[in-house]
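User: I'm writing a tutorial on reading structure tokens. Could you give me a worked example: one chain, its sequence, then its tokens, then a sentence or two explaining what the tokens reveal?
Assistant: Sure. Here is the example chain.
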Amino acid sequence: MAGVFRFSFGPWNIHEGADPFGPEVRRTISFEKKLGLYKKLGFDGVQFHDDDAVPDLNDLKPEQITRRAKSLRRKLEALGLVAEFVAPRLWMDPRTIDGAYTSHDPKARAYALDRSKRAIDIAAALGTNLLVLWLAREGSYIREAKDSKVAADRLVEAMNVMLEYDPAIRIAVEPKPNEPMDQAYLPTTGHALAIGYRTVAPGRMGINIESAHAILAGLDPSDEMGFALSFGKLWTVHLNDQNGLKFDEDKSFGSVDLRRAFNQVRLLDAYDFGTHGEFVGLDVKAMRTQKDDVATRHLSNSREVFNSLLDISRGLDPAKMQSMVSARDYEALDLYIMSQFLDRAR
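And here are its predicted structure tokens:
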């Protein structure tokens, strides 16, 4: 078998270009117009934060939230789109400045759990059972500020609440080693997998691997994906690229290291990713210099690069590669792989 690839991205991937050092450089595109671009760009799935789907949900009652999410589902269906997942956006509220699930403040932890339940309600109304947890502010700036053992226990407790709230929900943890926190809890795939096995429903705990996050941890994304695949836990991916160990850049897929991108594609295809409904998710940002009329090329480019690398991978000669491996002639194998890229470029 081989992978079956459908692509998704989140509405935040079409943005105005503001960063910590400068203002917006592109006009705002309405949410409805963004949805209208998905099919034109070759995408079938929409990634959602909870408040992407239902704005101002903190001010709404649960039944209002569900009603608005169901209305959005009808819009998606009319456009031929589906919701891939919902992620509770816990890091933007003043109450979660010191963490959400791991905050010292019990009121902040209660808010985080209530908001997560509302995100689960939204997911159900949109027709997806996948919740992604990026634990943005679950960490510390100095070691003495928090007890890491208590923090781990609180993460398990929070996940248990979510798993028990809806017996259909599946949770994919998105590990990241730093930013916005100096040191984050659950920084790698191994940490995220381990915490899942401590919950009341390990079978409903999985992983979302983002390329850049693995690179920030000094790891290779394809190795992290292979580790998760060996447990049957790679439920979605966020493909992008990263230029060094600094802030999370979310560069277009393959734009920094094409060989590294190739191995992610090769691994996903080799292990039939997508045949159980998984999406190839992108989390990429346009370069700040992009003008309005070309500010979605980072999305179409990333998808094109993925498909080009897939063609290269499927064109390899497995027997030739195996003979090189058996002979331990890794230099020959190295040149063989590089030659595929060079021949493609001619």
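What the tokens reveal: The first helix runs from residue 31 to 41. The chain has twelve helices and ten strands.
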